[in-house]
Amino acid sequence: MADITVTEANVEPSDSATIGSGTAGAAITKGQPVYLASSNKLLPCDNDFEASAKAVGIAVNNAADNQPIQYVSSGIMDVGATLGTGVCYVVSSTAGGIAPAADLATGDYTCILGLCKEQTDELDVNIFFVPKARL
User: 24 and 65 in contact (C-beta within 8 Å)?
Assistant: First the structure.
């Protein structure tokens, strides 16, 4: 499998979604998962490092560096892509990407973004970071 292909024009939170906001620390595109960096700015997630894998939400608007950004932190949202019913979606190894959990590889940090329950364009956002086991 591969990252989902997001059509920005179709990214839309539901009326009941919880919306957070912040300042972009780089260019962010609608539909990208974002994390809060040590600079207190939001950046696109990737699962290569623990810090960048800890998503706070999925962007609902485009933003340039130092511009305001909003994101869905929980609830239903149209992610602008076709999803598989019953499939769990996670932060991808590609910056700003969303992938099915089956794409995770050894060494990736796991951050669950949500589950596609019924509508194949809607993700039930329920973010959960899975810490790696300590030896």
Answer: yes
Radius of gyration of the chain (CA): 14
Please name the helix (run of DSSP H) or strand (run of DSSP E) that holds residue 100, with its range, or none.
strand 98-100
Residue 135 in this model has a pLDDT that exceeds 70: no
pLDDT in tens, 15-62: 999 999 999 999 999 999 999 999 999 999 999 999 999 999 999 999
pLDDT digits (tens, 9 = 90+) for 60-106: 999 999 999 999 999 999 999 999 999 999 999 999 999 999 999 99
What is the architecture, at CATH level 2, of domain 8-128?
A: Beta Barrel (2.40)
Contact between 33 and 98 (Cβ < 8 Å): yes
Alpha helices in 23-88 (DSSP H): 50-53
Those residues whose C-beta lies under 8 Å from the C-beta of residue 134, and which sit 6 or more positions away, are: none
Using DSSP bridges, classify how beta strands 11-13 and 68-79 pair: parallel, antiparallel or unpaired: antiparallel
The three-class DSSP label of residue 65 is coil
Instruction: Sketch the domain layout of the chain as residue ranges.
Output: 8-128
